[in-house]
Amino acid sequence: MAVSPLSSRTLSPLPPPHVALRRPGAAARAAAVAFPRKDPKLNQLDVSYYGQRSKWALRLSLAEQSPPKPAVDVERLVGFLYDDLPHLFDDQGIDRTAYDERVKFRDPITKHDTISGYLFNIAFLKTVFRPDFQLHWAKQTGPYEITTRWTMVMKFMPLPWKPELVFTGTSIMGINPETGKFCSHVDYWDSIKENEYFSLEGLRDVFRQLQYYKTPELQSPIYQILKRTGKYEVRKYAPFLVAETSGDKLSGSKGFNDIAGYIFGKNSKTEKMKMTTPVFTQAFDNELSKISIQFVLPLEKDLSSVPDPSQKNISLRQVDDGIAAVLKFSGEPTEDIVLEKERELRSSLLRDGLKPKMGCLFARYNDPGRTWSFTLRNEVLIWLEEFELD
After folding, report:
1. pLDDT per residue over 266-304, tens digit each?
2. 43: which residues sit within 8 A by CB, 6+ positions away?
3. Which domain holds residue 163?
4. How many angstroms from the chain centroid is the CA of residue 51?
5. SS3 category, 4
6. How far apart (Å, rounded) are the C-alpha atoms in residues 297 and 272?
7. Considering the entire predicted model, what is its pTM?
8. How many angstroms separate the CA atoms of 157 and 162, rounded?
9. Torsion angle, CA of 107/85/166/361, rounded to 10 degrees?
10. 164 and 287: one domain?
11. 266 and 234 in one domain?
């Protein structure tokens, strides 16, 4: 019984001999399938068969020629930055192998395009400014991008008064998808709007911080600067103790001698304690209906170890940890000036969407009788209801 050509192909799944028997390379196999030799006996079923083989062979050829690259492990790089960046200015230093040789570094007043220039800038800052770098957080913000938030506090050593310079902001760290290393580092400061290099506003911000403030070398409450804008700082204070009594106004000195007497031995143990700074006056509401004047007690003390006051008008209290916005200024702090600074600070906080509490504190760091007025360090503080460091 004769078998038709169609039934023969139906019973045999093998392709035509000139395709099935050849074993060329990937590119040749793709060409042979995509462009088969003409055969007048082929019908529509053969064309469909060859079309499917063509697509499969082309995909196979491309896969063999261009193997996929492994994805960059950005989460691992985030963890690396948490470990590495705290060493930015210490003797260990950062790991240069995590950066491309051609790495773009930019901040408002500095630029470098190589890892060597980047490391030179770090060494320069370390020598001249003695920076204290604090990393607040790091997180992925793009497929090949990590954003960090930080605070850097520096002292300008060449000037006799060694002024403190504070910068806070974010850094955008770009990742090279070919190498998995950092290829860019661009800083943005919170204190200015013009962050592109070269920023005259940034340069003015640096010079403005070189102002001479006389800060006594005495204990003071411990705080961490979370953010510095062009108007104020946001600080996170650790708990501290105060001895306080009633005052009359924010810039006043009523009650000062009473709490000074407590520090100098007028207490249940006749214990003399070392001086601290600043002296606070606090208004507990916006109407200034209640004012207290406060001395900060030595930081090693707690409520169980400090002596009781000898005078009934003095009380001891722990100020809990919290976040405060602070406006710093110099000059003679008259009552009108202090109130004006308080209004200026509160207005700035509300404009920036923060939630200031009622009342305020005025901090005096210097003895006004022994300090030139233009070098006095004065601060107005307002506690915040809540604050999120974004």
Report:
1. 999 999 999 999 999 999 998 999 999 999 999 999 999
2. 6
3. 74-208
4. 57
5. coil
6. 11
7. 0.82
8. 5
9. 140
10. no
11. yes
